[in-house]
Amino acid sequence: MAISRHMARIALMQALFNAEFRDMDWDKSAEQLVQENVERFDLRPTEKNWDFIRHLIKGMGQSKKKIEKDIEDFAPERPVDQINAIDRLLLYIGIFEIKYDKGKEKTPAVVVINEAVEIAKEYGTESGAKFINGVLHNIYQSIEKK
């Protein structure tokens, strides 16, 4: 089955979760773990989707400290290390795409927020989806005000 960007985000989130569970450095092992998911679930990402996944992995790795600072600033009541893994990883992906992604095929922020919320509902909790929506929406609004 060919995968969409939606499925690419899910595969990446699962790979990052797997890396954290195995106590691996996710920015160095994520692509390998995505490949394992691709093979396990018979996914067939296009080269364009692989480029998208690699772009997210590289960009998130380079922006991780800034993303964590954004989480601290926009969710001060929830320390980064106390946010459940699914929600935190979706925030990393979403914040990178909204705020730090300078790629030429940048996904619109509204789409990124919707994707993160839908994935959170599927793999996390309803309260997590609301939390993610609030944080990403506030970050997006702060950028739009500038």
Q: Which terms would index this structure?
A:
about 150 residues, N-utilizing Substance Protein B Homolog, Chain A, single chain, mainly alpha
Could you outline the blueprint of secondary structure elements for this entry?
Elements lengths: L4 H17 L4 H15 L6 H28 L10 H16 L8 H15 L2 H20 L1
Helix pairs in contact: 1-2, 1-3, 1-4, 2-3, 3-4, 4-5, 4-6, 5-6
Quickly describe the structure:
This protein has a single domain, classed as N-utilizing Substance Protein B Homolog, Chain A. With 146 residues, the protein is mostly helical.
Protein model, in words:
The structure is a single chain. With 146 residues, the chain is an all-alpha fold. The chain has one domain: Orthogonal Bundle (N-utilizing Substance Protein B Homolog, Chain A). Helices cover 76% and strands 0% of the residues. It is built from six helices and no strands. Helix 2 (26-40) packs across helix 3 and helix 4 (85-100) packs antiparallel against helix 5 (109-123). The longest helix is centred in the middle third of the chain and has 28 residues, at 47-74. It is globular. The model has no long low-confidence stretch (mean pLDDT 89).
Write down how many β-strands occur, each being a DSSP E stretch of 2 or more residues.
0
Distance between the termini: 41 Å
Number of domains: 1
As a percent range, the share of strand residues is under 5%
Helical percentage: over 70%
Low-confidence stretches: none
Given the structure, what is the number of helices? Answer: 6
Q: What is the radius of gyration?
A: 14 Å
CATH homologous superfamily?
NusB-like
N-to-C order of helices and strands: HHHHHH
Whole-number average pLDDT?
Answer: 89
- Sheet/helix structural class: mainly alpha
CATH topology title: N-utilizing Substance Protein B Homolog, Chain A
Q: What CATH architecture do you see?
A: Orthogonal Bundle
CATH class: Mainly Alpha
Sum up the overall morphology in one term.
Answer: globular
Major sheet characteristics: none
